[in-house]
Specification:
The complex is a heterodimer of chains A (about 800) and B (about 100). Chain A is mainly alpha-helical. Chain A has four domains: about 600 residues, no CATH class; about 70 residues, no CATH class; about 80 residues; about 30 residues. Chain A has 32 helices and six strands. In chain A, the strands form three sheets. Chain A has a two-stranded antiparallel ribbon. In chain A, strand 5 and strand 6 form a beta hairpin. Chain A starts with 15 loop residues before the first helix and ends with a helix. About 10% of the residues of chain A have low confidence. Chain B has about 100 residues and is mostly helical. In chain B, helix 1 runs antiparallel to helix 2 and helix 2 runs antiparallel to helix 3. Chain B is elongated, with a radius of gyration of 17 Å. Chain B starts with a helix and ends in a 13-residue tail after the last helix. The model of chain B has no long low-confidence stretch (mean pLDDT about 90). Classes of the chains: A mainly alpha (about 800), B mainly alpha (about 100).
Chain lengths: ~800, ~100
């Protein structure tokens, strides 16, 4: 019997809860009934336009079951994970040099056997604290957000699987098991981004996310295979804590790529995997499109799971990347240079795009890309502790921001319904909102019968052409987009809890000095980069300046977003009526409680990493050493030197955060935009604004570089190779065989059949002649007998005579 | 003592009579009687050869006894066939039972 109280075995159970939840929900919940969706607004409006279709509606029992089971699964994971984390932080001895680990034999391949196992070290302890908490918040939030969705049980089962995959990835003790979790997440992201697959843009986004990350994953897998072929193991500790193996990898010249060592090549391959998963330039294009999924999924992808996994993988494999390099001494190698350049560039590049986006979720999507760039760049210059720190704080405040933006969108949609229903239906909407979907569908019929002429006139023909979430508005005639910040304004009074938590998250993202988590982690990255830059190392200086500029833009677009969304006066009728349906209903509670929890962490998570030599605060929060870096640095072999406190990076942090926030406020908050007023940025940036708004035309560029040629090549191969050569060969073979067949057939007919037939015919002919002998008269027969007996007798006599002679 | 060739001549004559009867008579009973004549001619031959060639060896007599028994059985079966033939076809003429042909 397995001893579950054994802390070494406990990590196995971390992913089990959500995995079971996935299985139970999939297997047990009722199959949904198909109900005609006559009124799109009855489903809460996050949906593609369902009108005119039949949609599956889950029975109320299944809804309750899927929510309960899903929540139980993740709560179990949370409990186990935090138990492990508690044991890890109270560990006697140096945790990190000793770890909790357990493994079993998995695949016996030849002489070596792959072992599958779990391992807990300081690095994934941190992930175990962060991931289940963020996922639990996302689950709670989903209850409200998906309350009216007809496919609720599907949602909860998939998101449970997603969580389970992430937790598998976190506790894995080898690269292969990690890759398994990695790929399951890829699958889940595909299905969840395309959750509203009726919508054209949603399934396209899903395909895009899947193929983009797949490109990267294949290359990453190459790296894994190469690593295995050289070392014969994929266990993290066997490779990363084994100087001999690392040295061997560092001294083996790489296959095909001359001038590189094997470790560099493997490193680059693994980094490409991360570039895909964490949406770094040039594979960043899928992440903004992933906004097509439901908002909790965005939060999941952007904060708790997907993109964090990419950075986590790099931190995990860091000793491998560092072979032959010493970033703290300014000695770089290929993988680290790749990380530095990609990270630094992406951080600034994505931040500039975020500045010009009007979609509340797109801004956040680009900010995620940018913040991940911070982490990758930090890793490039050897600041892996700072990167891990930023990974954790970012997960908290980005999950918060996504869910807050989700509730903003929800509130806007609520306002949209109100405006829609205003003419004919003055019922209490809050009550209306709380009903189950079946009730809605039935109600929808009665709605239809008396008042929905206006809907029918525009609904059916319009929905095919929608690219974004917009619903055409019958009253004003314009297409209403509940995610467009230009349509918002003044929401602070309508949804105060969301407003306050959004501000906390936004300030944390912007790095508001001293009190937010984002400040401390970002400052640490800048401090580390500055330490190198001060010694005159080029890559460090590059990272420092790129990140400082990106941080400035981050503060600016955050201020812009906050001001456009919440301040001033409502710019549309919908925004004026936006709301979550009163303070006490289920949707309002479930959608705001997680925000409050995460807001707490978005502030306090930073205080675990305050540098000791920081003036005043350092003495309060980390008297001897910052808890965070002290805890994490044992996870990897050689901790780098702590950056010495320096005023330059600190003042830079102050300046960029304060300056960006102030500039944003000055442009958007001082005199808030009125309805119909253009974005002041358009005048300032001129044509550049268009370029940014269109994301530097990367989608179009990729369409020309990759998609068009791919299509052309497919068509050419289809026409030429497939239909021409392959079909041609096949046809030629077929013709040849038919000809041979005909020959043989003729031969058959003539000789073999002729022979066979003539035997039969010959016998028939003989028979037809001989049958006249059969007279049926017995005396004829007897006569014949006598005659032949006489003949025989004569022969006998004749032969007897010759024999005698 | 009567020489052997006389016995053989009588037997041959008897056999020819029998054969002629079998081949020429229409009545099935007469055909059967002809068969009996032929069998008896053979018996006469057997007995004569035994007596003149190897009187110590009893094989000739034994064969004759066998042939008598077989002839009796054959007469019984043959007559039974003729009776059933008569019952089905109301005739004992051999020409009337010619169905067994092409």
């Amino acid at each position: 019997m397995i001893d579950l109280t054994n802390i070494n075995i406990l990590p196995w159970l971390v992913p089990v809860g959500p995995l079971l939840a996935f299985a139970i929900i999939i297997l047990i919940t009722n199959r949904s009934k198909m109900v005609p969706a006559t009124d799109k607004h009855e489903y809460g409006g996050h949906h593609p336009d369902y009108d005119g279709m039949t949609v599956p509606v889950v029975t109320p029992l299944s809804r309750v079951l899927s929510i309960t089971v899903g929540l139980s699964g993740i709560i179990a994971s949370l409990a186990i994970a935090w138990t492990i984390a508690g044991a890890a932080t109270n560990f006697n001895g140096v945790f990190g040099q000793e770890v909790f680990a357990h493994s079993v034999e998995w695949l016996a391949t030849g002489t070596t056997a792959l072992r599958m196992g779990v391992m807990i070290d300081p690095l994934n302890t941190l992930m175990l604290i962060m991931v289940p908490l963020a996922v639990l918040c996302i689950f709670i939030y989903s209850i409200g957000y998906m309350a009216h969705d007809p496919r609720q049980s599907r949602f909860f089962s998939l998101i449970s699987l997603f969580a389970s995959a992430m937790l598998t990835l976190v506790v894995a003790d080898n690269l292969l098991l990690m890759f398994v979790g990695w790929e399951i997440m890829g699958l889940c992201s595909y299905m969840l981004i395309g959750f509203w697959f009726e919508k054209d843009s949603a399934y396209k986004a899903a395909v895009k996310a899947f193929t983009t990350t797949r490109v990267a994953d294949v290359i990453m897998f190459l790296g894994i295979v190469y690593l295995y072929s050289l070392t014969g193991t994929l266990n993290f500790r066997d490779i990363l804590y084994n100087p001999e193996v690392l040295e061997k990898l560092g001294s083996t010249p790489a296959l095909l790529f001359t001038g590189m060592t094997a470790s560099s090549l493997i490193g680059v391959f693994l980094i490409i995997g991360t570039v895909g998963k964490s949406a770094q330039f040039p594979l960043h294009v899928w992440l903004p499109d992933a906004m097509e999924g439901p908002t909790p999924v965005s939060a999941m992808i952007h904060a708790a799971a997907m993109v964090s996994a990419g950075v986590y993988a790099v931190i995990r494999m860091y000793p491998l990347f560092e072979v032959g390099a010493h970033p703290h001494e300014g000695l770089m190698n290929t993988p680290l240079m790749v990380l530095t350049i990609i990270g630094g560039f992406t951080a600034l590049f994505a931040a500039t795009i975020a500045v010009a986006q009007n979609d509340v979720k797109k801004v956040l999507a680009y900010s995620t890309i940018s913040q991940l760039g911070f982490m990758i760049a930090a890793l490039g210059v050897g600041a892996y502790v700072a990167a891990a720190f930023h990974l954790i704080t970012h997960a908290f405040f980005k999950a918060l921001l996504f869910m807050a933006s989700g509730s903003v969108i929800h509130a806007m949609e609520h306002g949209e319904h109100h405006v829609h229903d205003h003419g004919h239906d003055d019922d209490d909407e809050d009550e209306d909102h709380a009903h189950g979907a079946i009730a809605h569908a039935i109600e929808a019929h009665s709605h239809d019968s008396h008042a929905h002429d206006a809907h029918d006139s525009h609904g059916h023909d319009a929905h095919g052409a929608h690219v974004d979430h917009g619903h055409e508005d019958a009253h004003t005639g314009h297409k209403f987009d509940p995610q467009d910040m230009m349509n918002m304004g003044g929401l602070s009074k309508r949804i105060p809890v969301t407003f306050i938590t959004f501000v906390i998250g936004g300030l944390s993202l912007a790095g508001f000095p001293l009190i937010t988590a984002g400040f401390w982690s970002k400052d640490e990255i800048l401090a580390e980069a500055w330490t190198g830059a001060a010694k005159g190392f080029g890559p460090h200086a590059f990272v420092f300046f790129m990140l400082a500029a990106a941080a400035f833009l981050t503060a600016f677009y955050t201020a812009r977003q906050l001001c456009l969304t919440f301040l001033g006066e409502a710019r549309t009728e919908e925004a004026k009526h936006a709301g979550l349906g009163g303070p006490s209903n289920v949707i309002s509670i479930t959608m705001q409680l997680p925000l409050i929890i995460l807001a707490f962490f978005a502030v306090v998570a930073g205080f675990v990493g305050v540098p000791s030599d920081f003036p005043v605060l350092g003495g309060i929060f980390s008297p001897s050493h910052p808890w965070f870096s002290h805890f994490v640095e044992n996870a990897l072999v050689e901790p780098g030197p702590h950056p010495v406190f320096n005023w330059i990076p600190l003042l830079t942090s102050f300046a960029v955060a304060g300056g960006g926030l102030f500039l944003g406020w000055w442009m958007y908050g001082r005199k808030p935009l009125k309805a119909g007023e253009p974005d002041p940025l358009v005048n300032i940036l001129g044509p550049m604004h268009n370029v940014l708004k269109n994301k530097y035309y990367f989608d179009e560029l990729y369409a020309i570089i990759f998609i068009k040629p791919a299509q052309a090549i497919s068509k050419a191969t289809g026409d030429f190779i497939d239909k021409g050569i392959i079909d041609g060969i096949l046809h030629a073979i077929a013709t040849a065989f038919r000809f041979t067949g005909d020959l043989i057939k003729t031969f058959n007919l003539w000789l073999i059949d002729g022979f066979g037939d003539s035997i039969g015919q010959g016998i028939g002919w003989v028979g037809s002649r001989l049958r006249f002998v059969q007279t049926g008269r017995v005396q004829n027969y007897l006569l014949m007998v006598v005659f032949f007996a006489l003949v025989l007798g004569l022969i006998f006599i004749a032969s007897a005579g010759t024999a005698a002679n | 003592m009567v020489p052997l060739w006389m016995y053989l001549a009588v037997a041959a004559a008897l056999f020819c009579l029998g054969t002629y009867t079998v081949l020429s008579r229409k009545n099935a009973v007469a055909v059967l009687m002809g068969v009996e004549l032929m069998l008896n001619a053979v018996n006469l031959n057997l007995v004569a050869f035994w007596r003149f060639q190897s009187p110590l060896n009893m094989a000739g007599q034994a064969f004759t006894a066998f042939v008598l028994v077989v002839a009796a059985a054959e007469a019984a079966v043959g007559l039974a066939i003729i009776i059933s033939m008569y019952r089905s076809r109301r005739s004992v003429t051999v020409d009337d039972v010619d169905m067994l042909r092409w």
